[in-house]
Specification:
CATH topology: 434 Repressor (Amino-terminal Domain)
Structural class: mainly alpha
Radius of gyration: 12 Å
Number of domains: 1
Keywords: DNA-binding
Shape: elongated
Oligomer: single chain
Protein name: Helix-turn-helix transcriptional regulator
CATH superfamily: lambda repressor-like DNA-binding domains
GO molecular function, one term: DNA binding
Largest sheet: none
Pfam families: HTH_3
Order of helices and strands: HHHHH
Strand content: under 5%
Organism: Collinsella ihumii
């Protein structure tokens, strides 16, 4: 997954600090920081929560082209 740059950008666009996003997701600020630096990556369940909290499709959060299924990741033909 290549979400580190996207996550930080989307968070800032919504005027959220790492602390505020962490509080909304019931996690630590350090977890958000590690995702944004690429040190670790969230699991798929957390990715769904992040996408919901930031009001974006999972495909945008993961830098996937629009022609991918958000549920399974398969490419539309």
């Amino acid at each position: 997954m290549i979400m580190k740059n996207t996550l930080a950008r989307l968070r800032r666009e919504r005027g959220l600090t790492q602390e505020e996003l962490a509080r909304r997701l019931y996690i630590t600020r350090q977890a958000v920081s590690r995702w944004e630096t690429g040190a670790t990556e969230p699991g798929i369940d957390m990715i769904k929560l992040i996408a919901r909290e930031l009001d974006v499709p999972i495909t945008e959060l993961l830098d996937m082209p629009e022609h991918y299924c958000q549920s399974c990741g398969m490419m539309f033909t």
